[in-house]
Design goal:
Layout (H helix, E strand, L loop, with lengths): L1 H14 L5 H12 L4 H7 L9 H37 L18 H15 L3 E2 L5 E3 H4 L19 E2 L15 E3 L5 H9 L4 E10 L10 E11 L4 H16 L5 E8 L2 E10 L16 E10 L1 H7 L7 E8 H9 L12 H4 L3
Parallel strand pairs: 1-5
Antiparallel strand pairs: 2-4, 3-4, 5-6, 6-10, 7-8, 8-9, 9-10
Length: 349
């Protein structure tokens, strides 16, 4: 009798300290578990004299019911208290001022790329796309770039190992490259349709460069216009409209003779330095001019590659680097800033 009374007192003492559901469960296991105190005492009834077993069993069952009732009551109480604490800890003070979350912004390269596309679309140019992993034929051969041309050197071009199987077309070289310009889209576009046509080809291109003015991946916009009686004057008119809309109507423009294997004649297009106003500075190397794109009349060899009549059709093509135009437009001196994902830089645009 004394030991059972002491057991009940010990339980009450421990129950008074319970403040979490975890500690309550530990208490339940201690007294009512498979190896708990009450369970062991009930198992031990067979070891006491037969005449004492009824009273002893009744008293143990009473204590067991008492403990079960107390644990149930404590569970409801502690559960309610924990729920209350959780609600209080997760409460939102609606009187506090809201936190400002700055909205995302368009990347400066994408911003300028969209502006370029909008300008040419407004002039009636369509938009063409092509694969970034390209056949050597489309990237070089069809553009009048022979096998020994310097642009084919490994320091300029990323070559992809081609599968060991014959090509489906006899004139397509088995070499696969990451396109070095968007000019292959010209060939694919001309193969799909007949003149007259005019479209631009914006997209990513890849070259083995990495410094303050070059990255291994960058963006270009290629343009093409083909038809009857297309002249260099048409090319000059289109590009002057583009440059004046991009950099302002008072921007000086000049065309310098140059060389590209897929155009003849070819020209580099310069604008008056937007930093020094043409007076000469470090950026324009004292000349007062900045190169912005290359252009020229489509070479007859390119027309022959796509089956166009070189006696009937002429056309012009041009290409520009979007990162370069973005650097000039926003006066950025390091191309790598575009790809570092620095919020301090990107939030300025």
């Amino acid at each position: 009798m004394e030991d059972l009374k002491r057991l009940k007192d010990e339980f009450d003492l421990e129950a008074g300290k319970i403040d979490t559901l975890r500690s309550l469960n530990d208490l339940r296991v201690k007294y009512l578990g498979k190896k708990g105190i009450i369970t062991e005492l009930l198992k031990g009834l067979s070891k006491i004299p037969r005449e004492q077993r009824p009273d002893r069993g009744r008293q143990l069952n009473e204590i067991k019911k008492y403990i079960e009732k107390e644990i149930k009551r404590l569970h409801e109480k502690v559960s309610a208290e924990e729920t209350k604490k959780k609600i209080q800890s997760e409460a939102i003070d609606i009187t506090l001022p809201g936190r400002f979350i700055p909205p995302g912004k368009v990347h400066p390269v994408n911003r300028v790329l969209s502006e370029i596309v909008d300008i040419f679309v407004s002039m009636g140019f369509a938009v063409e796309e092509g694969p970034e992993v390209e056949h050597d034929y489309y990237n070089f051969e069809a553009l009048n770039i022979p096998k020994d041309h310097p642009a084919r050197e490994m320091q300029d071009t990323f070559y992809v190992k081609a599968p060991n199987k014959p090509s489906s077309s006899s004139h397509i070289d088995s070499d696969i490259v990451l396109r070095t310009h968007t000019s292959p889209v010209q060939i694919r576009g001309m193969k799909k349709r007949k003149p007259p046509l005019k479209f631009i080809a914006p997209g990513k291109v890849y070259r083995c460069d990495a410094d303050v003015s070059h990255t291994p991946m960058f963006h270009q916009v290629e343009g093409l216009m083909v038809g009857e009686d297309i002249t260099f004057s048409d090319l000059k008119g289109v590009l002057e409209v583009f440059i004046h809309r991009m950099f302002g109507p008072s921007t000086p423009v000049r065309f310098r003779p140059s060389y590209f294997p897929f155009t003849e004649p070819s020209a580099e297009v310069d604008i008056g330095c937007i930093l020094c106003g043409g007076e000469g500075c470090r950026v324009c190397k004292g000349t007062g001019w900045l190169e912005v794109l290359g252009a020229g009349m489509v070479h007859p060899k390119v027309f022959e590659a796509v089956g166009y009549d070189t006696e009937r059709y002429t056309g012009f093509a041009f290409g520009m680097g979007v990162e370069r135009l973005t650097m000039l437009k926003y006066r950025i001196d390091d191309i790598r800033l575009f790809y570092e994902n620095d919020v301090r830089f990107l939030s300025q645009f």
